[in-house]
Amino acid sequence: MTYEEYLDEVTTLIFEKYGLPEAAAVKLVVAAQDKEFFVKHDKDKQLRNIDQAHKDAQAIYAAAHGDKPKAPR
């Protein structure tokens, strides 16, 4: 998937798994992007896959919520 599709996937997973409003999920992904969380994904397309998206969604959500992730839906 493209870099942009990957970011969309991570955003969707945060929205669906953790019950955040879509706008809040977008803000988390944008903030992570601003902190260069996704630089390695931009350079290595093999990191842009569904399994990695689940891991990244969890990591981003946990980082924003004190490393105490809400149980996935």
TrEMBL record:
What is the name of this protein? Uncharacterized protein
